[in-house]
Give the backbone structure.
Amino acid sequence: MTQGSPQGMTQGSATQTTRTTAEAFDAVDIIRTKRDKGTLSPEQIDWTIDAYTRGVIADEQMAALNMAILLNGMDRSEISRWTAAMIASGERMDFSGLRNPDGSVKPTADKHSTGGVGDKITLPLAPLVAVFGVAVPQLSGRGLGHTGGTLDKLESIPGWQAFLSNEAIMAQLQDVGAVICAAGAGLAPADKKLYALRDVTGTVEAIPLIASSIMSKKIAEGTGSLVLDVKVGSGAFMKDEAKARELAETMVALGQDAGVNTVALLTNMDTPLGLTAGNAIEVEECVEVLAGGGPDDVVELTVRLAEEMLACAGVHDADPAAALKDGRAMDVWNRMIRAQGGDPGARLPVVKESETIYAEADGVLVQLDALSVGVAAWRLGAGRARKEDAVQAGAGVRLHAKPGALVKAGEPLMTLLTDTPEKFDRAREALAGATVIAPEGSRPAQQLIIDRIA
Ligand code: URA
């Protein structure tokens, strides 16, 4: 993919490297083009991603280019090429060898959520979709900040292993049909370096960069179909519906351009999903959903995303709600957890300390702020501030009421869980103003699935 790859190029300062004659372009010219609202050529984009990955473009130059992109945007062809260049920076997985019992190729489908509080949907969703013969390669990450990470949740199951070789992923997809594991370092390595730089230079929010970052990893993962759950609201990355919609439309277009059947749902993240935000407590809630129960919003979103994934993969006559009720999804879950060394029947970790927060008035709970609950769970030990921090498996927030519920003064609203009670004060601070109780008859405006973008 690279234009003018250097021979014997050394890594070093920007001044040394960008003046080298072996390079096809000059980073400063590329920055000036974007600064002046110009369009980058495909060759310039390929070179930029490759040269940055090789260390030829310095961090300060890439930071300037990212800021120019944040301020001036990129057109669809630029974003598409930027994504392709990031995919080409690493390996691409290939699931075309998966077979159905009749010898036909097994379809694959994946889901990506932009992240929210209590968003545990991947856990019941992957085995549920696999029930219908569609393989689900769900390569996931850890949580950072107030949104939880799928791997952190699953690691609360005794024995469960997040790291699998590519061969083990293939074998599990063939035998069980679903795998949730750590995404390997080989997928879109350019994105890893770029994302770390964006994180410390105030450029994470650029929609072209978010869309290409997410989609480069998902396309490199090799899935045939992809359903995006783009969250909107206080607990989401995108607080504003117009921005979330623009992100969803950009990602759907990127997926389609790359030959992946892609659709997006815009879903509400003003309040946490389900009744738990943490790790082990979220797994426990998912097991309830897989047993045919669980909170209505978790069931609704799981079933809807399963329907979308199955339709994208060409399966139109499935009834995912029935597969939750009759135990078929639970059977796949048990096999999926065992295949990765976990004991699905083991007792999950519980914390040593808890504190309950009570309603201060009678009425209807009209607000339960997702961001506040996410920050509280994080401060209680369920999340991490830095990549290398450990999480407490049992920590988090258990909710006793959701918006729309009638509550009475003195009734429990939520329970805070941690192994380290000195964390309670900061968690309570995060929850100041998180709940609003209005007179009976008030109705919270909550619509879980806001729109579908295809
Ligand atoms: N998640 C990603 O993977 N990349 C972004 O840029 C933002 C969120």
The first helix runs from residue 14 to 18. Residues 147 and 374 are 6 Å apart (CA to CA). Confidence is low (pLDDT under 50) at residues 1-20.
